[in-house]
């Protein structure tokens, strides 16, 4: 494995960590509605648990209301029950075949709790990135030990990996502050 391969491998894994973190951030509820909030809610569909998005159209009616239009009429009560029993704190209301899911306004205390959740998720992502940096550095040091690269090459690769790590952590910090601002906006 060459230095370029080590760096590329670390870069790809760090990018995957950021994508995973972005997915985690989308699941954290803010005052505004977005269809992705129901992605983690599963409904019983003929004996198997499937995401709501696979059995219904999930769209926005307005900034604070999600509409769920089941593809089969008999699924409406099951979908409503699954949303109500999820840990999202939502209270859906049926209107014929359409299920309206209003997003309740967040209290100040709940907003603070959510910012703590965001910070913890961000710290977990930072730890993952630092672990990837450590692994990449160990690979570079192993190449030096096996005399496949020079000390200068090793030092240069460690610097490049550190710069990459700093850039990724800066992006994580930016995502955290953006999500905190979104949560705290009334």
UniProtKB/TrEMBL annotation:
Keywords: Cytoplasm, Protein biosynthesis. Transmembrane segments: none annotated. GO terms for molecular function: ribosomal large subunit binding. One of its GO terms (biological process) is cytoplasmic translational termination. One of its GO terms (cellular component) is cytosol. It is found in: Cytoplasm. InterPro entries: Ribosome_recyc_fac, Ribosome_recyc_fac_dom, RRF_sf. Its main location: cytoplasm. Residues 21-184 form the Ribosome recycling factor domain. Pfam families: RRF. Responsible for the release of ribosomes from messenger RNA at the termination of protein biosynthesis. May increase the efficiency of translation by recycling ribosomes from one round of translation to another. Belongs to the RRF family. This is Ribosome-recycling factor. The gene is frr.
């Amino acid at each position: 494995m060459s230095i370029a391969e080590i760096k590329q491998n670390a870069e790809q894994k760090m990018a995957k960590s950021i994508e995973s973190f972005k997915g985690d951030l989308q699941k954290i509820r803010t005052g505004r509605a977005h269809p992705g909030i129901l992605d983690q809610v599963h409904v019983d569909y003929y004996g198997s648990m499937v995401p709501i998005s696979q059995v219904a159209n999930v769209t926005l009616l307005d900034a604070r209301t999600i509409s769920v239009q089941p593809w089969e009429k008999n699924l409406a009560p099951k979908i409503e029950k699954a949303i109500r029993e999820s840990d999202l704190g939502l209270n859906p209301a049926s209107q014929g075949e359409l299920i309206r899911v209003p997003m309740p306004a967040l209290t100040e205390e709940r907003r603070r709790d959510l910012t703590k959740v965001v910070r913890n998720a961000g710290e977990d992502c930072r730890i993952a990135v630092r672990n990837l940096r450590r692994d990449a550095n160990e690979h570079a040091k192993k190449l030096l030990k096996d005399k496949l690269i020079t000390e200068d090459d090793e030092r240069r690769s460690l610097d490049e990996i550190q710069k990459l790590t700093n850039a990724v952590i800066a992006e994580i910090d930016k995502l955290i502050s953006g999500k905190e601002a979104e949560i705290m906006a009334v």
